[in-house]
Amino acid sequence: MLRAMRRCHVLVLTLVLAGCGGGGDDAVDPTGDGGANGDGGGDGDGGGVTIDAAMTAGCGTPQSPGVQNGTINVAGADRTYVLFVPAGYDPARPTPLIFAWHGRTGTAANARAYFGIETIAAGAAIVVYPQGLSVSADPGDTGWLLGAGERDIAFYDALSARLRSTHCIGSAYSMGHSFGGYMSNAVACYRGGTDPGEVRAIAPIAGGGPFGTCPGDPVSAVVIHGMSDTVVAFSQGEGSREFWRGDAGCDATSSPIAPTPCVVYDGCDGGRTVRFCAHNDTQFGGHGWPSFAADAAWRLFQATP
User: Fold this and answer.
1) Which of 12, 120, 241, 257 could make an S-S bridge to 294, C-beta 3.0–4.6 Å?
2) How many folded domains does the chain comprise?
């Protein structure tokens, strides 16, 4: 059952900065691919690509496919992002939009290099990689401010509005690694729902949250976390799982679901889906990007129209 207001589990916001920092956790793979290779087929649980029936203002306007660097002014500050538009993009057909948030000290380009979501979606989604600003005195200490009235929720709003005005956008989704996982949870907390500009499902990987009071509607979620994570404790992922499971009214029982090692919880309200993928990958202190992450995210997005 949808609820207008909810109370998130109580944690101290400084844990985000301390837990996600850890000496620059987004340097999880110096090669830049993070171990993501797009394996698993990406056939999805929904049996096909999720498409909205509603048309956005950008429908009918031709756009060049490929990778573009963009800039948008938000409250007087220039914010940058990397935008991927697939080769088969049709301006007359609403296309899913995925927000992909990098980890602390990371970059939008770095996230694009190893997330693997473009490969697994196989041309069926537009992907935008926002670039974070510094969260400390160090200019290279990039990350996200997670409060409802902070600069990065405003960045999400502005970027969502721009892309809906320039492209033919369908359902919107969010995923992220580490601090980007916290950001995905925050976006769902404040902007979860089915209205234009809201996200319908999220895939936080090695993150935590949300925090504070959440005014958004319940969302579908797949929470992915390493059981031996030494940077963001496994309990943070468990907390995210329990928040979204409780928020969607799911039972405590679950069943295995592809890809391994994910499970799906029973009895969720309103057609929502909550999944949890606890893995044993020990790369980078258990805080790396598991090879199944993009597949798990895309399967959920396809199953959440």
Assistant:
1) 120
2) 1
